[in-house]
Amino acid sequence: MRPRAVLFDIGNVVVRWSPATLYDKIFPDPAARDRFLSTVCTMEWHVEVDRGLSFRDNIARLTALHPDHAPEIAAWWDRWPEMFSGTIPETEAAIEALHAAGVPLYGLTNMSREAWPGVRAMSGVFALFKDTVVSAEEGVVKPDPEIFKIAVQRIGLEPSALLFVDDSEANIRAAEAMGFHTHHFSDPAALRPALRAFGLL
Question: What are the helix (H) ranges across the chain?
């Protein structure tokens, strides 16, 4: 079965997000920045807000463990918008083209409920999504199969009727195991040819 709708990841598919974008400003030495992001503000720590913990509580927990880095840890939320470096024009254009062609569009993102409104405001294409599943609202994150099941239930289509687009290999593998069509987003210029190959454009 060819896909009839598209399910988009958001971070680094529609909008560019990287903690290094902010922490480059805080740590002039790249080695110090990398050390901080690999030992203090790690992605394993951050994922708790994607599961539903508030930024305030997550930051408080980490600050208690690393009081010497309190200002840098606080910046994770205080200066959160500085982690973003704009939208990805190729994705926005593809979403607009899909919408014009009548293809139903959806979102599936690992994201804090606190962060989602600000991210949603970054691009008008989010208004074209019929629905977006936000991990913090569900208490489960990709690549857990449960969040894909939630998305399928909300959308009302079988995985075989959906094309899932994500930049994470782990998420792509999880979706493939459940029967989704997939496109591993690594090159923005490759998105539109992939959509054409699936017969969506």
Answer: 19-26, 30-39, 43-50, 55-65, 70-78, 89-100, 116-120, 135-138, 145-155, 169-177, 191-197
Residues 6+ apart with CB under 8 A from 184: 166, 167, 169, 172
User: CA-to-CA distance for 163 and 198, rounded, in angstroms?
Assistant: 8
* Total-model pTM: 0.96
Indicate if 58 and 143 belong to the same structural domain.
no
Q: pLDDT tens across 103-118, in order?
A: 999 999 999 999 999 9
pLDDT of residue 85: 97
Q: Is 157 exposed, middle or buried (0-12, 13-18, 19+ CB in 10 A)?
A: middle
Domain residue limits at 32: 18-84
